[in-house]
Amino acid sequence: MLKDIMEVRPAGEYRLYLRFEDGVEGEIDLSKLVEFKGVFEPLRDVREVSKVQVDAEHRTVTWPNGADLDPDVIYSLLTGNRSRHLVVR
Q: Span 51-71, mean pLDDT?
């Protein structure tokens, strides 16, 4: 049940505010969601976190270096519906 992300913006430190097409919105803490290794390593620097954007084609959270987050994972975290196995790589 993929929902499109309509808005993302930095919310301080490693936090992001997100809004989905169905009105679900909230904040996530990247430091609790991803390990800062590999493609996510540059995000250790909160200045890099602030470069977050919504990919216009895929409606995912993305950064200029190619790091991205699965919208299903974020939606599940915000709604508390964790019926699927959640993995962020």
A: 94
The Cα 37–Cα 23 span in angstroms is 32
4, two tokens: 């499109």
In the numeric block, which tokens belong to residue 40? 């996510």
Read off the tokens for 18.
């997100």
List, as one string, the DSSP characters of 31-75.
HHH--S-GGGGGGGSHHHHTT-EE-TTT--EE-TTS-EE-HHHHH
Is 64 in contact with 51 (CB distance < 8 Å)? yes
- Its pTM stands at 0.85
The one-character DSSP state at 23 is S
